[in-house]
Amino acid sequence: MSIKVIIAGFKGKMGSEALKMVQNEMEFEPVALIDPFSELTEYQGIPVYNHKEELADIKADVWIDFTTPQVAFENTFFALEHHFAPVVGTTGFKESQIEELIVLSKEKQCGGLIAPNFAIGAILMMSFAKQAAKYFPDVEIIELHHDQKKDAPSGTALKTAEMISSVRGMKVQGAVDETENLKGARGAEYNGFRIHSVRLPGLVAHQEVIFGSKGEGLRIRHDSFDRTSFMTGVNHAVKEVVKQNQLVYGLENIL
């Protein structure tokens, strides 16, 4: 029996890759596409809708969301309310919003996933950084993305920072009398260390975690050169969330 999938944001760069993946997976069946600006009523034989409310009575199992931070929370809330297990790659969620969605998912007994990054290599990079932080507490994060990315720092960088902080604790880095001759030169502060965001055309998604200690350094880096790198994780997530009864944050929680 196939897993019936709704895709929100199917015209975007990530959404279009997700649609290809769903179409090429024998276990999946795309049943609806959402784009608020589309004038199409169907795309490649799949019904297209402008508003999520039009999908309230559709029979579907999973809601894939690659939209924008402005609508992702409402979309995910709607999906959970209608028992469409959400697989969300849109970033920019507030911690309070994630907590609210987890509570709702428990009430609805509906699985789901919000993931800052679906690339398996990125998940390993974050895991390795967490391990390294136990022994190298001095750290900085540099994340690099294409210039159309809306939020900074990236969700992956924030997730990495959270994971590092869970084993590192609070430690203020840099000189006590450090000053910025240009505001923001040292990046955003997170629990005593810094996160730097780079936005340039030609980039896709890249992150480097740099550790320093007496007489040595350690660099952990992941690069996504093409958006197809995320689809293995999305595929796995779709298959897993239908087995779960609550939403989780981070792909590592269902690997």
UniProtKB/TrEMBL annotation:
Residue ranges of every copy of the Dihydrodipicolinate reductase N-terminal domain listed in the record: 3-118
Primary enzyme class: oxidoreductase
Source organism (scientific name): Streptococcus urinalis 2285-97
Gene: dapB
EC nos: 1.17.1.8
Protein name per its UniProtKB record: 4-hydroxy-tetrahydrodipicolinate reductase
Keywords tagged on the record: Amino-acid biosynthesis, Cytoplasm, Diaminopimelate biosynthesis, Lysine biosynthesis, NAD, NADP, Oxidoreductase
Database matches in InterPro entries: DapB_C, DapB_N, DapB_N_CS, DHDPR_bac, NAD(P)-bd_dom_sf
Similarity comment: family membership: Belongs to the DapB family.
